[in-house]
Design brief:
Layout (H helix, E strand, L loop, with lengths): L1 H11 L1 H22 L3 H24 L5 H31 L7 H20 L7 E3 L3 H8 L2 H7 L4 H6 L7 H20 L3 E3 L1 H6 L5 H17 L2 H29 L6 H4 L1
Antiparallel strand pairs: 1-2
Helix pairs in contact: 2-3, 2-4, 3-4, 4-5, 4-6, 5-9, 6-9, 11-12
Length: 269
């Protein structure tokens, strides 16, 4: 009976591993698309890889095949899809396209190395049963925030709303380059930091005490996809998540620690 159970479990482990493999393959395809100058499709391919990355863990828990092997294999996939691929997109789309000093290639290299450190740390602290928060910004979230540049800058000139506001001419890669430096440095530092970042399920579905409030927030963000563009919707949810996490960390580490301790009324009586 034990041998029969093990054979069944070994068959089931194929499903999450296959999904993880697809996430890795999509990351490789993203690199090839970026190498050919198709940065928008490369970014969307990485988003598809993120969907696969989110599914493999759920499938592993549903099929009771979560294992140490799955954690290690998932991290190898993440390093390619969310470490190497977004760094390559940034290097080609931002640094190479502007023909600026080669020193700026250190930025995507830094992002990739910090992502590798983040994954290595995750491997020795991860649990197959999941967790409520992450220590350091997860590399898929960092990658998601970094690869929004190509689709956003491709959509901006076509937006009637942005055109009417007169901001389209300012939304160029040359003008936004200093902000991209700040973003990639912040994301790289966040991955290797000890800040707490909520899991997607905990953040989007359990952030507020009442369920209707959580669904109202989700519906509000989904409406951005209808009125604006998918890339703007992605920017909104990435900004909301990061600002919320940084604000909480600032409150807990600065405001809360500097607050004077409450006096014991019984001792002062």
């Amino acid at each position: 009976m034990v041998g029969k159970y093990r054979r069944r479990r070994n068959v089931k482990i194929i499903f999450p591993s296959t999904i993880t493999s697809f996430a890795m393959v999509f990351g490789f395809i993203s690199i090839m698309l970026a190498a050919n100058g198709d940065f928008v499709k490369a970014s969307y391919m990485l988003m598809l890889s993120m969907v696969m990355d989110g599914l493999d863990g759920k499938v592993a828990r549903m099929t009771n095949t979560a294992s140490e092997f799955g954690i290690q294999y998932d991290s190898l996939s993440d390093l390619i899809a969310f470490g190497l691929a977004p760094a390559f997109i940034y290097a080609r789309f931002v640094v190479h396209a502007q023909g600026i000093d080669r020193m700026y290639y250190l930025l995507p290299m830094m992002f990739m190395v910090c992502g590798a450190i983040r994954l290595a740390r995750f491997n020795i602290t991860a649990s197959i049963y999941g967790k409520t928060h992450f220590t350091g910004l997860p590399i898929p979230a960092a990658s998601f925030a970094l690869i929004l540049w190509p689709p956003l800058l491709n959509w901006a000139p076509q937006s009637e709303i942005l055109t009417s506001l007169g901001v389209v001419e300012h939304l160029t890669l040359q003008n936004l380059f200093p902000y991209s430096i700040g973003l990639i440095v912040l994301l790289s530092w966040s991955m290797i930091s000890t800040l707490k970042f909520d899991t997607p399920g905990g953040f989007w579905f359990h952030k507020f005490p009442k369920k209707w409030m959580n669904w109202a927030v989700i519906a509000a963000f989904l409406s951005l996809n209808i009125w604006f563009h998918f890339s703007f919707f992605c920017l909104a949810i990435a900004t909301y998540y990061l600002l919320f996490m940084y604000a909480r960390a600032f409150y807990e580490r600065v405001i809360k620690q500097q607050a004077p301790p409450l006096e014991d009324e019984e001792n002062t009586a």
